[in-house]
Each structure stands twice: as structure tokens, then as C-alpha cells.
Amino acid sequence: MQVALVGLGVMGKNLALNLIEKGLTLVAYDNNPDAGEELLSLAKKEGFAERLHVVSELRDMISRLDTPRSILLLVPAGELVDRVCMDLIEAGVEVDDIIIDCGNSNYKDGIARKLKYQNKFEFATMGISGGAEGARHGPAMMASGSEGGWERIIPSFEKVAASFKGESCFARVGQSASGHFVKMVHNGIEYALMQLIAEMYHLLRLGCGKSPQEIAQIFDTWSEGELNSYLLSISSHILTLENKDQTPIVDLIDNKVGAKGTGLWTAQNALELGIAVPSLVAAVQARHLTNTHDTLASLEMTYQQKAVSSTQIDLAKLKSAFHLASLLCYRQGLALIKGASRSHQWKVDLAKTLQTWRAGCIIRADYLDQIAAGNEFIDNMQNEVNALREIAGEALKTGLAFPVLGASQTYIATLTTPSNGHLVQAQRDYFGEHGIKTHQGEPCHLTDLAIIDAKVR
Ligand code: 6PG
Fold first, then answer.
1. Active site residues
2. 77-127: per-residue pLDDT in tens?
3. CA–CA separation, 271 and 265 (whole Å)
4. Helix (H), strand (E) at residue 356
5. pTM assigned to the model
6. Is 339 in the pocket of ligand 1 (CB under 6 A)?
């Protein structure tokens, strides 16, 4: 099997080595010749340079490949993807060739590109997760589209991807550009889980007075059981790191958090589709809030530093609350994928989606089995539901902020306790005659129901 790869940045370079190691012959290109040189020397060091051809012209790449060609793009999302596609057309790609955008592109661009290039070549999308390490040794690969080009590639990519209990973490999750939608939501979940872990740390550190080392130990005991996850284990490791003066590394790092945009897209899409993902939205806003201190609006106001109240937290309950809140982040993400799939008619397979997340990706976790088991898991988690309620309450009493913990409690509370939507319905009808629906689903107005004049004020 022979493939080409355009873009030899950190992800591209590592994926290139993985592809060659798994037996593929690779033709690689980057517009920076140093990147090609570096790849060549890495491949030589690993002893598989004979299956690598680094080219300095796209035309050369095209002529070296047997037809129909398979070309992977690992270039930054946005305009550059189109620029490379146009260059490849000029270099001679043909209608049966497949070009797969493997970057963190917006799925809307993917849909537009499928149309734009339909008579030039087959445009496909694939979300890849796992950072440099995953790309090198086995990433999660969320591919989409049902066209012919994939058939040629799948057997090789199943080997290139990570595997979990013998099953590959490569899957064609659904139609059209749904692979990029799934990767986008993967990142939305990633933001929420990262923030949730940071909130557990925050509560233990400032609310309970524990040191980073002690918190790392708590996270390690959680990891020994069913809560084992990649993000929890790296967080624990980070908390053990110290400089030469034994200052915890976390204390040397500024609080402002940046983002490349996939979390924001997740929140935007959820809001547009009307699918509630409060924990995912809260995580995006939590990052925005870390930057608030320096904004003009906040500089114009004077906020006095407020004292934090200390608290005693039952660690077993904290673990249960964290467990449930983590599961809820995935459930919200999956609900979003399901809703989007329905409205776009993508036929996304959630079981396959979860299979791609089992290994190699940033949100891999042992408890994905529980999520795969379906919605009913909440009914069997009464202790965790109670713990989340109690811990969220205790956490808020410290005066610290817990956006994802609070949003997760709100989410589960909304699903499992009576709602107050009836009053909001009535308010809308009161001032705007927007109509209401009764318990029987009958559309009417307040004035139809009230025995006295509903507009008495
Ligand atoms: C992955 C990661 C990767 C990257 C994201 C998030 O799955 O390998 O999600 O894609 O870390 O771009 O980055 P930001 O936090 O900068 O948005």
C-alpha cells in the first residue's frame, strides 16, 4: 500500500513514521524543505527509510503514486487546506484519487469542500486524536464518508490506528464530514474533562488545603480503579513535578488558558442545534473567564479579592461525584453527535464512535464501557447522583468557581427532578401571546386556562 502525506509538522511527521513502520510506502511533502530532511533522518534512524520518498514538488509526488492515489493532508485547518487542494489539482490529481483532510477542520468546511471538489477528486475527512505520541504509535481515527476511496485504505489504516483489546480505533463513523464533527465533539468533551479535573484539584488545594503532591496521590488512587483515564493520569503526573527549589511546577504557570477553537465550535453547534451540553459550554467559558481579569470591562471595575472558605470533603464522595460528572460529559457529547447526525442525516454510529475513543485519543478512559452500555447507567448510579449533589453544594460554599462541576450537577438535576419550564412558558405567553402547551400537549393561551382575567395586571 502506498500513500502520500502533505504537511510534516509535529502531527504529520509522527504519523508519517507510523505509516512507514506499519508497512506502507510513503511519499511525503512539506513546503519547508527542512521538515522533509528531518523526517528522512528520523526514518533512517528507525531503519525504515527505504519506504520513504521525500519530494520537493507536488508534481513529483503525483507522478510517483500509483493510481488511484491516496493523499493525506495534515496542514493547519482553514484556507491552507483549500490552497493545497488547488495545488494538487494543478499537480495532476484525478477524479478517482482520494484526498483526506486529517486536520482539526470545521466540518462545515468539509461539507462545502466535498461539493466543491466533487468533479476533481474524492474529498474525505478524518479527525485524528492523540497528539504527537498517538500519531507516532497509534492514534484514534474518526473517518467519514462512504465513497470508494476508503475501501482501498481501510485495511492499512486499521493497523495504523491504536487498538483496544484487539479492535482497531479506526472507524468510518458516519457519512459526509461527520468524522470532523465527531472529532470536534471529542475536543469539546476533552475541554470539559480537563476543566473538571482542574476543579477537583482546585477544591482539594484551596478548599481542603492539600498540596499538589497529596492531590496527585488522590488522583493516583482513583486511577487504580475504574476511573483510570489518560487525562487523570497526566494531571497527576503534572502535579508531582517540581523545580530545583521544590516549588510545584503548577505554581509557576500563569492562569490564562488559550484555545484553538474546536471547543468553541462544539458549543456553537450545540446552541444552534438546541442540544443542551452545559458541561461542555461551561468548559469553554471557563477558559474565557481565565482571560477576563485583563479585559477592559473588568479593569474598569474594582473587584476586591474575597476570602476562600475552607471545607472538609469526604474523598469517597468526591470520587463518586467526579465519576458521574465525567460520564455526563461524554453523554452530553454523544447526545450532540446523535442530534447532529439526525439533522444532517449522517447515520453516525455511536458504538463505532466510542470504539475510536477506546485507545490512542486524549479522552480515552476505562469507564467508556459504562457509557457504551447506554442511558440507563444513571439509574444504577444513585450513590453517585447523591454524591454529585452534595459535593457541588459543598464546593460552592467555599466561594470558589466550579463551572463544569456545577453545570454537570445542573444537567443531571434537570433530567432527574421536576422542571420549572411551565412558569417560563406562562411568562412568554403573558407578555407576548406566544402560546403555551398543557400537560396533554394542547396548544392554548393563559387566557383559555385561567378562570379570572389572566391579563389583570
Ligand atoms: C487531540 C487534541 C488535539 C489538540 C486540540 C485542542 O485529540 O489530539 O484534541 O487536537 O490538543 O487542538 O487544542 P486547544 O486546547 O488548543 O483548543
1. 183, 190
2. 999 999 999 999 999 999 999 999 999 999 999 999 999 999 999 999 999
3. 10
4. helix 350-356
5. 0.94
6. no
